[in-house]
Amino acid sequence: MVKKIAMTLLSTVLSSSLYAGSMAQSEKFVGIEAGPAKVQGDSVRGDETGIEFGLRVGAQLDQWRSMVLLNYFDEGDHNTEKLMVSVDYFIFDTQEGGRYFNPYLGANMGYASYEVSYQEDTDAFLYGAQFGFVSEIMDSLDIDVGYRYSLAGADEFDHMGTAFVGLNYLY
Questions:
Q1: For residues 31 and 144, what is the distance between their CA atoms, to the nearest angstrom?
Q2: 54-66: burial string, b at 16+ Cβ within 10 Å, e else
């Protein structure tokens, strides 16, 4: 477990240092997200579905976006908390009348704590991919619609898929 935490922290530091030179030029943002999620693993009888909520902080350039996500899922006896780093590549930039529409593909990795009321807590390293689009609503507000799929390294918590809608405040 200590190795997984150390690897997650190292990845966070490395990804943030990759973009440190460009951070002064980028648009920084904070946001929220929510959407239906499905968790699967040995401790889940079938698929456990519910709503996942999250906070996001990040920065974006013309073609790249990186963010740190803190998400929470609680349904019945199951509770999952995730801390992830996400990097997205905007496939193309469609700008019409000053507004933009940017589809993206991305990768994520991080750490999850998975709890079930009738067994011990499970900590797992997460990695996965996401896709979606970002569209400007107003000058400093955009909407993010996408799907994120993450695999975990624990038997009790095998993988999780989330369809989400996020709102980002750009500053």
A1: 10
A2: bebebbbeeebbb
d(CA 101, CA 154): 37
Task: Report pTM.
Answer: 0.81
**Cα distance between residue 42 and residue 24, in whole Å:** 45
Any idea where the domains of the chain sit in the sequence? 2-170
Q: Is the dihedral of CA 62, 64, 67, 71 positive or negative?
A: positive
Residue scoring higher pLDDT (23 or 75): 75
The CATH number assigned to the domain with range 2-170 reads 2.40.160.20
- Show the DSSP H helices in 88-170 as ranges: none
How wide is the angle at C-alpha 17 spanned by C-alphas 8 and 9, nearest 5°? 15
Residue 8 in this model has a pLDDT that exceeds 70? no
Strand boundaries in the chain, DSSP class E = 27-40, 48-60, 64-75, 78-90, 94-96, 99-116, 122-138, 141-152, 159-170
Residue found under tokens 């918590």: 157
